[in-house]
Write a sequence for this structure.
């Protein structure tokens, strides 16, 4: 069991680390190219989402169901003073809609914001760009997979958000009435 | 019926009497022979003295005539010897014939004649010495001396005849006595031999019959005695063996009794010690009961404090949930800030660094809250376990109190039973000691009996040996008695 002295020393360590980070001057010379990724789980499988491909992260947002012919669409939710349509990431990746409440939401899309919900968020991490490989054709054919992350202790699929947005856009376009075309 | 000794004594007495008679007869004959021989010797002495007297007188006469013829003194020596020796001879003759009156008379006569002759001789010698040869020759021729000499010869011849008659008579007597003694010895010896043989035959026959019967009886008795001794020896041996086994068994019984006595003594001591221990235990139980009540109160207090601790832990958990939520929101804000910073290009890099640090801080806070949550869960689990254990301890204490009461009652019952046990152990110890003493006495008695059995066995063996020797002796006697008959 951890004692009070251990907790106090851990707080002191956090404080020192923060101060040290602030004291180091920003320098990019000699630093290799890294990518920021979010580690999530969809239906229990590990996935990663590039931070550069999303515009925000939120949780516990109330999603109001919205009737639609698109089964992946869960509803709409209020985000940053506006409404965004929320889609089930699991459904988009081919798992089907998750049974429980997906409390995590990533916001993506520049012109038309879209929310992708998932159940488990594990954290943020950065990896060298050299550890992100292009997926072979068999994986790519499965579900919007273009890259795979192979780190020392982690192997997971990198979800391609632009492809998902493109897919959503196509579905939305297909589901609109023909007279509007 | 005469006994063996009486018969043998009678036989030997008769033989002794016969031998005594024969001896007496022989002694008498030998004594008579000795007397006769002595008388003969006496007679020969008389005869010798008579002849000696006559010879001396003849020598004196011869000397007288030689002197008369020669006038030489040397021829007088025989005369002088006769004058000197005759009186002693006459004296001897008188003594030798003192028991014979006629011989005494003849000795007196011869003495007279000898004196006359010696006077005549002296007279003639004196004449011759005076030188009168003629006169002396004349006197000799006158024949006076011859007459005296003839008378003397006659007297001495009579004495000689008398003695020779006595000698013949005594020789006849000696021959008769010797013949009688010879006959007595020969016939007596033969008779004695026949008598001894007859008596020996009769005694042997009688003794053989009686001893044979007695020996047969002794033999049969010795056989019976041998058989009885055999039975007695075997019985004594069996008895000795049985007594040895009994002695061994009683020794073991004695040792066991002593062990039981010692064990009973130890039981008594142990029971006393146990009784004192039980009393001490009762006091301890009383004290423990009071301690248990104190423990129960302390346990109740601990339960109350533990429940408070559990509530406080729940409150800490609630606060921690808020902190965790704040950390999660901070993390989200930091990620969003990172996203915004990356979207702002180079201008947002510094902001991105700050956002990254804030995110790391939020991550660490989240991790710490997870650790704290784990700690709180552990505390709550420990509190729950402690509460449950304490409640179990409280129940156990209650149960222990009840059981202590039962233990107290049981200890008191044990003390009462121990008192009874101590008394019983003392009685057992006393009884076992008495029993051990009795067994020791029995052991001593049985040891004596075993010793007596051993002695009886030895005695029976000796009796058996003696019976065997007796049987052998009776067989030897039978063989000695029956040997002549068989031969």
């Amino acid at each position: 069991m951890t004692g009070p002295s251990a907790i106090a020393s851990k707080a002191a360590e956090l404080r020192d680390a923060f101060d040290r980070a602030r004291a180091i001057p920003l320098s990019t010379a000699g630093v290799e190219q890294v990518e920021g990724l979010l580690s999530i789980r969809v239906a229990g499988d590990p996935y990663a989402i590039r931070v550069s491909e999303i515009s925000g992260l939120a949780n516990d947002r109330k999603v109001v169901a919205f009737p639609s012919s698109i089964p992946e669409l869960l509803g709409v939710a209020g985000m940053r003073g506006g409404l965004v349509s929320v889609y089930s990431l699991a459904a988009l990746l081919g798992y089907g809609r998750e049974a429980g409440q997906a409390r995590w939401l990533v916001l993506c899309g520049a012109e038309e914001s879209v929310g992708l919900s998932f159940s488990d968020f594990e954290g943020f991490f950065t990896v060298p760009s050299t550890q992100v490989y292009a997926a072979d054709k068999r994986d790519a054919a499965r579900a919007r997979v273009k890259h795979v992350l192979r780190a020392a202790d982690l192997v997971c699929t990198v979800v391609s958000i632009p492809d998902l947005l493109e897919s959503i856009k196509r579905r939305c376009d297909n589901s609109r009435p023909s007279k509007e075309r | 019926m005469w006994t063996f000794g009486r018969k043998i004594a009678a036989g030997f007495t008769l033989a002794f009497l016969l031998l005594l008679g024969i001896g007496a007869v022989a002694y008498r004959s030998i004594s008579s022979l000795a007397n006769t021989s002595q008388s003969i010797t006496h007679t020969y002495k008389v005869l010798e003295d008579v002849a000696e007297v006559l010879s001396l007188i003849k020598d004196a006469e011869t000397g007288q005539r030689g002197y008369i013829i020669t006038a030489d003194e040397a021829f007088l020596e025989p005369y002088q010897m006769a004058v000197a020796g005759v009186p002693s001879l006459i004296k001897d003759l008188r003594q030798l014939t003192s028991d014979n009156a006629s011989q005494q008379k003849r000795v007196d006569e011869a003495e007279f004649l000898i004196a006359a002759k010696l006077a005549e001789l002296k007279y003639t010698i004196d004449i011759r010495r005076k030188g009168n040869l003629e006169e002396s020759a004349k006197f000799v021729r006158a024949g006076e001396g011859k007459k005296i000499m003839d008378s003397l010869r006659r007297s001495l011849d009579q004495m000689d005849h008398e003695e020779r008659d006595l000698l013949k008579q005594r020789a006849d007597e000696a021959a008769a006595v010797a013949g009688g003694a010879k006959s007595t010895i020969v016939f007596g010896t033969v008779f004695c031999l026949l008598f001894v043989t007859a008596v020996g035959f009769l005694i042997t026959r009688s003794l053989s019959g009686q001893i044979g019967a007695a020996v047969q009886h002794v033999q049969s008795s010795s056989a019976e005695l041998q058989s009885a001794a055999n039975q007695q020896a075997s019985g004594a041996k069996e008895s000795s063996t049985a007594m040895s086994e009994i002695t061994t068994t009683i020794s073991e019984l004695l040792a066991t009794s002593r062990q039981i006595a010692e064990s009973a003594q130890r039981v008594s001591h142990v029971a006393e010690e146990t009784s004192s221990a039980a009393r001490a235990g009762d006091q301890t139980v009383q004290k423990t009961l009071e301690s248990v009540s104190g423990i129960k109160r302390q346990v109740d207090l601990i339960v109350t404090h533990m429940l408070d601790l559990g509530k406080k832990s729940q409150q800490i958990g609630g606060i921690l949930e808020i902190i965790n939520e704040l950390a999660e929101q901070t993390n989200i804000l930091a990620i969003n800030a990172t996203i915004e910073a990356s979207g702002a290009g180079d201008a947002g890099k510094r902001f991105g660094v700050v956002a990254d640090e804030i995110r790391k801080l939020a991550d660490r806070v989240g991790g710490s809250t997870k650790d704290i949550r784990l700690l709180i869960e552990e505390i709550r689990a420990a509190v729950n376990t402690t509460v449950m254990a304490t409640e179990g301890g409280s129940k156990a204490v209650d149960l222990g109190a009840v059981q202590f009461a039962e233990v107290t009652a049981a200890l008191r019952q044990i003390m009462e039973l121990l008192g009874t046990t101590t008394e019983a152990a003392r009685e057992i110890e006393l009884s076992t000691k008495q029993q051990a003493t009795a067994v020791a006495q029995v052991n001593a008695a049985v040891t004596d009996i075993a010793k007596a059995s051993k002695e009886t066995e030895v005695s029976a063996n000796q009796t058996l040996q003696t019976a065997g020797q007796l049987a052998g002796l009776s067989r030897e006697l039978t063989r000695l008695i029956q040997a002549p008959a068989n031969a």
In short: Chain A touches chain B at residues 1-2, 7, 10-11, 14, 17-18, 21-22, 26, 28, 36, 38, 51-52, 54-59, 123-124 (CB under 8 Å). Residues 4-23 of chain A form the longest helix (20 residues).
